[in-house]
Hints:
Layout: H1 2-19, H2 46-55, H3 75-89, H4 100-115, H5 122-127, H6 135-153
Helix pairs in contact: 4-6
Amino acid sequence: MRSKHLVILIVMVLVFMAIQFIRPERNMESFQNRNELFFRYKEAPQLVRVQLLNACYNCHSNKTAYPWYASVAPVSLMINANITKAKSELNFSEWFLYDEQEQVKLLLEIAEVLDNKSMPPKPYQWLHREANLSDVERKKISDWAKEYSNALGSN
């Protein structure tokens, strides 16, 4: 019985070592994207920009600041899958590629997920203190997103 456990342990260690060679492509755009001007213009006040960068940008852009554990499989695979899904929902790096109607929709979705506290996800907040938004910070971003969507929608 003991040798059976040893064999299982060895197989698990070998599998863990083997999956370390699976390296998903990193989400690190190397050039300055003209569409990232979203964070440089007046659309968002400085405080809102900083909060969006800290809480949202790692997953919802083409530039992720990877922590050390993002190099260890299977965590690296899970992180890559989460980033891919997040960018399919909203990619700030491509903000100006969205038409005005889509921008309005995305802004209202930003407000909604902040109001119902479904973003940023809890596990992300546990590992990234800067993404842990207070109720006041959530309200500021949400109010800004609603105001900005109204301004866009009235054009």
